[in-house]
Amino acid sequence: ARYRVAVLQDLLAQSNDLIGPGSFAALYSRSYDNFVHLAHGTSPDLITKSVAPMTDEQIQEMKARNQMPDLPPEALTFNSPELLTSLSNAFVETFFTLDIEDQTQQVAVIQLEEKPWLLAFYQPQAVFLAPIAEQTTLILLLAVIVGVATVIIAAVIAQGFSTPIINLAGMARQVESGNLDA
To answer: Is the alpha carbon torsion for 127, 129, 131, 137 positive or negative?
Structure first.
């Protein structure tokens, strides 16, 4: 079967920012012990590039099967050993973290059932963790409010208990000094 890369690219581009700003998907085909980009949500220039360098024989064989364009080998490689390792382990660990252009990405990967392809969905870690940061801030704010309210209530209750005792002590001093009418 033949697939038009442009159609796959359009489908993935529609998923950009789907689960938050900066999120995107990428589709990979396994070739030898490597992966080749079939589509990429934000970088269409990566299409047909392998994740790590391939041998000249592998490239020539893929070109002969029309799986790669007729470009020099250096133009056919993305060269990300970390991504290659993570994608290779995706059958065991379907979630991983990857640093891309000074931004940490959370990545979820699934193996497609019909084709030997991997679909990876990338989301910036800051966006991924934003709800947790908001919850933490809310919990800290609530804890401070509860703490302040507890101190105020404790002071009011202490005042309520201590006022009659202070008044009684004052009366006792007046009686001690000889004022029996107090």
So the answer is: negative
